[in-house]
Amino acid sequence: MRSYLDFERPLADLEQKLHELREYSTDSVDFSGEIKKLEKKATKLREEIFSNLTRWQRTQLARHPERPHTLDYIEKVFTDWFELHGDRNFRDDPALVCGFARLDGEPVAIIGHQKGRDTKAKVHRNFGMPNPEGYRKALRVMQMAEQFDIPVFTFVDTPGAYPGIGAEERGQAEAIARNLREMAALTVPVIVTITGEGGSGGALAIAVGNKVLMMQYSVYSVISPEGCTAILWSDGTRGPEAAEALKLTAADINELKFVIDEVIPEPAGGAHNDPAAAAEMIKAVLKNQLAELQKLTKDELVEQRYQKFRAMSMVEE
Amino acid sequence: MAWFNRRSKPPISAKESKKVQVPEGVWTKCKNCDEIIYSKEIERNLNVCPKCDYHFRISARNRISLVLDEGSFVEMDAGMESVDFLEFKDSKKYKDRIKTAVAKANGGDAIVCGEGTIEGLPVVVGVFDFGFMGGSMGSVVGEKITRAIERGHEMKKPVLIFSSSGGARMQESILSLMQMAKSSAALAKLKAAGIPFLSILTDPTTGGVTASFAMLGDLNIAEPKALIGFAGPRVIEQTIRQKLPEGFQRSEYLLEHGMVDMIVRRPEMKARLSQILHILTKS
Ligand SMILES: [Zn+2]
Question: How far is the CA of A216 from the centre of ligand 1 (A)?
Fold first, then answer.
């Protein structure tokens, strides 16, 4: 059974009916006329719903239980994937996956937050919230990529870094901070894709890239709408208002011009509606971006990345 | 609170109160030990509680006068102010929050940056003002810090940042977050150039400030009993649904867990910084 968000509900019945008709179609019974009609109806309804999404609804889409996660994209976009484990200090953090693969034959390093699909997997992945050792593993692999002159792709999808006692004791802040500084100095291309939730420092810790891309229904923000309303409104239930105020959608952030480089379009109804198509769209963009960065020397890569982030401010003087 | 209001006035004798107009704030209650202390006495003690050694929060200007050589400070980027580019509104408009804070602080933002000397050694400093919107970091704070680091790089002067901040400024959303990356990237260049960066963490230093430059000091130095952490204690308690250990996220706790190099009391800060800097710069 697929799961639907509230505003996707109207689509659920139609899709269920379509599913049944396709199931019962045989050589002797032809529902193709009926199917076509319903498909058209569903497409129109989907377009209607998705052309009028609020920022809160987009936030929910970014967290959709069926949204593809990093490992789904790795499987569909890359080949020869192997995962590396552990920060060589404390333990392996399943909330962040790291490894190497090939993008159309080209060796690449991959770093990404990983959420689980069912309850057991969600807990195992800590809901995509890394501990310090996750960020330290990521840095280890990024610096290994640099050692072998291999470009780095990161995939961001986290509610944030984990706020726990152990995380604080082992230096969550230090781990994030160190990644920010060290990523800035990497001499290989770094391409960041925000695929789902870009949750604050926990996202940024793997997002200091030469290119930063956001998928159409991803969000990126300094704090979650819920966290924001808890602090500013002293009322944690006003997420929809906070989402509006934070202007956290890909379209909003693209409007600022200098924070992200490109919005990657998603299939109708969002990436979860057609993960294979979403992966194709990502792959095409990643290849283009990489080709562009491969024209730069090591020094130019570091300087381009520095200037990109250096330009990010709006002040009056 | 009622108890405090009652206790805070009587300690002045009737005779005294006839002679002098008693202004607000003559007595201060220590947040740590609850003692009611004559405010002048706390001030004379560099805003450290004479009873329990609690380090009160102090203004950026006050801190600068305690650490830099007298008359040596030259401010940078004093006129830089925040812009409400998102037209952010919660219970109040960000534009109005800025206006109120700027009026109260007489201009500027949550940090004061500039150049000066410590026992003759030239340095670049950035000092947070917690009084300005909780020391929160938006574009102005991030930009001033980055320029201060770049100045240190250019002039080959050590950089010192005294943090006191609740973290990133929510009202500037994604751009506040980006200040963490920007300032940390500037530190990468400073580090490569072999110029010292000292991070001094004072009460409180949390969130996006801790998770960027404040934890990246060649030395991380804390004032006693300062709250220092990534997530706020309330958020952690709500997440894990457990009581937090005694002294959690305080300077002494961080020292024990290897996150800061040393704890230095305010009266000894200047001499200690001077000693460290002179050794690191071999001067
Ligand atoms: Zn006290």
Answer: 53
| Ligand 1 geometric centre to CA of B52 (Å) | 4
pLDDT, tens only, A85-127? 999 999 999 999 999 999 999 999 999 999 999 999 999 999 9
Judging contacts by C-beta atoms under 8 Å, the chain A residues touching residue B229 are 168, 173
ipTM of the complex: 0.96
Alpha helices per DSSP H over A51-154: 55-62, 70-77, 119-124, 132-147
Q: Phi then psi for A45, rounded to 5 degrees?
A: -65, -40
A313 contacts in chain B (CB < 8 Å): 139-140, 142-143, 175, 178-179, 182
Pairing verdict, β B121-128 and B111-118: antiparallel
Is residue B217 within 8 A of residue B228, CB to CB? The reply is no
Q: Which CATH superfamily does the domain covering A58-310 fall into?
A: 2-enoyl-CoA Hydratase; Chain A, domain 1 (3.90.226.10)
The whole-chain average pLDDT of chain A stands at: 95
Based on the number of CB atoms within 10 Å of its own CB, is A295 exposed (0-12), middle (13-18) or buried (19 or more)?
Answer: exposed
Q: Where are the domains of chain A?
A: 6-52, 58-310
Q: If you search the block for the tokens 């290994």, which residue do you land on?
A: A144
From residue B270, how far is each of B32, B118, B182, B201 by CA, in Å?
24, 7, 28, 14
Instruction: Give the residue extent of every domain in chain B.
Output: 1-54, 58-280
Provide the CATH topology of domain B58-280: 2-enoyl-CoA Hydratase; Chain A, domain 1 (3.90.226)
What SS3 class is residue A263?
strand
Give the C-alpha separation, A1 to A15, whole Å.
Answer: 11
Beta strand pairing call for A262-264 and A211-215: parallel
